[in-house]
Amino acid sequence: MSSSPITTIVFDLGGVLIDWNPRYLYKQLFTDEQEMESFLSTVTTPDWNEEQDAGRTIAEGTALLVAKHPEHRELIEHFYGRWPEMLGGAIQGTVDILTELRDSGRYRLYALTNWSEETFPIALEQFEFLHWFEGIVVSGTEKSRKPFPDFYHTLLTRYQVDPSQAVFIDDNERNIHAAEAVGLHTVHFQSPEQLRTELVALQVLA
Questions:
Q1: Residues 10, 127: Cα–Cα separation, whole Å
Q2: Based on the number of CB atoms within 10 Å of its own CB, is 185 exposed (0-12), middle (13-18) or buried (19 or more)?
Q3: What is the end-to-end Cα distance of the chain in Å, rounded?
Q4: What confidence score (pLDDT) does residue 3 get?
């Protein structure tokens, strides 16, 4: 770590503060787990979902996938039609850390998230802690996403964040490497306990 003091903490949301998983929905729709996993890996793929995160409309993304897999129309339409059922709740241990950071008054707090512009308002309504951030940069709104460098620079420029004085927390190693490339300190999130340990090592938490 550089000698610059840490002044800013940037959180990813899904998988760090919010437990989002399509399996919460699709376990209700499949009786065979292998069939469910096959559907999620070959039909409603992460790459397909990321296009909505990057600004493609849900209507367009759904129509494209139904055209490609007409036999799965109903299951595909449920992905966004029943999207709130994919939210498993807050990851409380991380929310506790966020609470400590907020209450310390020592840090600027931001979020940088790959999230559809159309579904993000659902999360904003459900999770009070999202309103604690000074700013949230949402990929679907910006029409870009992690790991593309311009998406990180949007946050850094908009909020005048010095990357040498900021820590970025994400559960996706790909996004961590991209953050390091733009000069951010990083924590590759694996659990709230591990996050706390690393923030103590960075002298962010006591």
A1: 17
A2: buried
A3: 17
A4: 59
CA angle 203, 109, 99 (to 5 degrees): 75
User: In terms of Cα–Cα distance, which of 147, 138, 144 is closest to 120?
Assistant: 138
What are the structure tokens assigned to 78, written together? 């449920």
> Tokens 């090592």 map to which residue?
201
The count of other CB atoms within 10 Å of the CB of residue 164 is: 15
Q: What is the phi/psi pair of residue 159, to 5°?
A: -110, 10
**Cα distance between residue 64 and residue 49, in whole Å:** 12
- pLDDT at position 2 over 80: no
Kindly tell me if the per-residue pLDDT of 86 is higher than 90: yes
- Residue pLDDT, tens place only, 103-121: 999 999 999 999 999 999 9
Dig out the tokens for 77 from the structure: 């339409």
Cβ proximity of 182 and 149 under 8 Å:
yes
At CA 122, angle to CA 116 and CA 127, rounded to 5? 115
pLDDT digits (tens, 9 = 90+) for 55-77: 999 999 999 999 999 999 999 99
Quote the CA–CA distance of 171 and 177 in Å, as a whole number: 11
pTM of the complete model: 0.95
Predicted pLDDT at 4: 78
Coil, helix or strand at residue 167: strand
The pair of structure tokens assigned to 96 is 């506790």
pLDDT at 1: 45
Mean of the pLDDT values across residues 142-156?
98
